[in-house]
Amino acid sequence: MRHGRYPFILGFLVAPVTLYAIFVLSPYVQTIRLSFTQWRGFVPPKWNGTENYSRMFQNHRFWQALEHHAIMLVFLPLITIAFALVFAFMLNVGGKGQGGQTRGVWGSKFYRVVFFLPQVLAIPVIAVLFQTVYRPNESGLINGVLLKAGLDKPIGFLIEKNLALPSIIAVLVWQAVGFYVVLFSAGMANIPGEIYEAAELDGASKVRLFFSVTLPLLWDTLQTAWVYLGIMAFDGFAIVQVLAQDNGGPDGATTVLGLEIYNNMQQSRLGDASTYGVALCLLTLTFAALTLRVTRREAYEF
């Protein structure tokens, strides 16, 4: 059996590895090759070396997109994880059961469903929904309430340059929090209740429990969440495409690399679109590798 183990394993791996190579690795390789060509899709690609990359680095829209990704990389994970951690903690450890046992707050099962609901909706649906929420007149949900409360003029959440990107980040946070509440709740469910009970017997408050027990024992889950949210921050195409004014506006205030890829494809500049795609891929992989390396720590055993 030992001699036949490796052929047996390879027999199971051949089909999935072949499919992965054809449908995942092959498009990446072709995109890298096309990034060194001038191609409009109608004639064979013409090799032009690093011209596409030089043009990309000289394009101010590229640097605008990088700046927006940097802002999203900071605020999207921080805000989402902060909200999700607090909600998950309250849903799992925030209350008291019979006999003094640690449990979630009353109605925690219902709250889990409510928090997770945005995950059921597609991103374009969420974007259309928030077009109504952010509408810059009395018919908008937020402006309608504020104007009735005495605000002088409506707020242009998506048409004012300094508000457009924060408004889009807020939508991404709203959409993502529910998933990470469930993720962190699953991680907290694996923490033995005896640890919380022992800490409470020693006089630990809920805040102390959160920072001294929950966070250290949830570190691996936090690391995974940060990587996922970083990848989400490098995406953002669908939400920007639907919500943003004037194709990443106003005045490029919400453009992202995914949108620049789309714009180049719309103009049949497929070589340039491939160049932006390679840049986006490299940035995402670099971020994920650095995050996993920097946040690596010895696992707690319990």
Automatic annotation (TrEMBL):
The chain crosses the membrane at residues 7-29, 70-93, 113-134, 163-183, 225-244, 273-292. Gene3D superfamilies: MetI-like (1.10.3720.10). PROSITE patterns: ABC_TM1. Pfam families: BPD_transp_1. Its main location: membrane. Keywords: Cell membrane, Membrane, Transmembrane, Transmembrane helix, Transport. Residues 66-291 form the ABC transmembrane type-1 domain. The keyword Coiled coil does not apply. It is found in: Cell membrane. It is a multi-pass membrane protein. It comes from the Bacteria. Belongs to the binding-protein-dependent transport system permease family. This is Sugar ABC transporter permease. It comes from Dactylosporangium salmoneum.
